[in-house]
Design goal:
alpha+beta, three-stranded antiparallel beta sheet, 3 helices, 45% helix
Length: 136
């Protein structure tokens, strides 16, 4: 079964672009008004770069034997085997929590569903529960 990857929603990702543009404008205004403002320009450029990285890289990817989760561009990938998943819960409407075995101890992975569209969040939850139930 071929499951498509889950990417950050346009709404969530566009915040980075908006913040980048705001910092660029503030930096340019500061440079012309006070001869300072290089920091705001750099921060603005970094936000725009983050926007482009997050737009291209999936947050969640289903593989045959494991799940790949990368919640932030600079964060490391989490590889979670389906057979190691102990529980999948939704403590709030906006958070999905995976508890899985990592070596000898349990580890929690919290995923903010606000990063996805509401439809994609429910779809992700259903697919995860099916994969764990099937023991794939």
């Amino acid at each position: 079964m071929n499951i498509p990857d889950f990417y950050m929603s346009e709404k969530a990702n566009s915040r980075n672009f908006l913040f980048g543009c705001i910092f660029l404008v503030l930096g340019l205004v500061s440079v012309f008004a006070t001869k300072y403002g290089g920091t705001q320009i750099i921060v603005g450029i970094l936000f725009i770069i983050l926007f482009n990285i997050q737009k291209k890289n999936p947050l969640v990817r289903f593989k045959d034997k494991h799940l790949e989760v990368k919640l932030a561009p600079l964060a490391s990938k989490n590889f979670v085997s389906y057979k190691d998943i102990i529980s999948i819960t939704k403590p709030t409407d906006k958070v999905l929590e995976l508890v899985y075995l990592n070596g000898a101890k349990d580890k929690k992975l919290k995923f903010h569903l606000s990063l996805l569209t509401p439809h994609e969040g429910e779809r992700l939850l259903g697919l995860l529960k099916n994969r764990v139930k099937d023991g794939e």
